[in-house]
């Protein structure tokens, strides 16, 4: 499958601290790519570097054939990369509908907001029922769905999800991943960060393992689950 996003030896970090070290990865133009690994080993930093929230120290990021390294976050969104951050990150005093519409703030997205809103409601029907509800009164799973829906309102060709299952009950996690899997199967490119490899092993076209900011393994989910030494060493499974 053609690569939509190509990372070539990228390094990034906070101030003088380097968190990512020479990471190279290709994200397919369609389907799910999963970034796995222990907490605190660079997964969130990787998404922040791609979305322009953190400057690169080295390497190149190429999206749809264009070098996007050094671009502002709003320019990267306009190019087609949508980042749904870890946690809820909603506007708590706005309604569900108002939160969703905040995702369509760029002119092109705003022009298509009516159609996209119907697509979000079709994918996440509970949000239609909750559209007038204040975000702070939602359950954790509902807030996570609003976050994903807001990202979809921005359009884009690559949806990046940082730990969509974080802090949720198992039954809600299953519901969230049903939605994510449906997006991937529909042909959308999805890059998801997930600590629990088993949750995405049967869904991802590629899994990439980060340890201490380095890419130490990549391959199919079935291959990873058949490698108990990798699971035990890096994921505590």
From TrEMBL:
Record-linked CDD domains: ABC_TM1139_LivF_branched (cd03224)
Keywords, alphabetical: Amino-acid transport, ATP-binding, Nucleotide-binding, Transport
Database matches in SUPFAM superfamilies: P-loop containing nucleoside triphosphate hydrolases
Record Pfam families: ABC_tran
GO aspect biological process, one term: L-amino acid transport
Domain ABC transporter: 5-237
GO molecular function: ATP binding; ATP hydrolysis activity; branched-chain amino acid transmembrane transporter activity
Superkingdom of origin organism: Bacteria
Family: Belongs to the ABC transporter superfamily.
UniProt protein name: Amino acid/amide ABC transporter ATP-binding protein 2 (HAAT family)
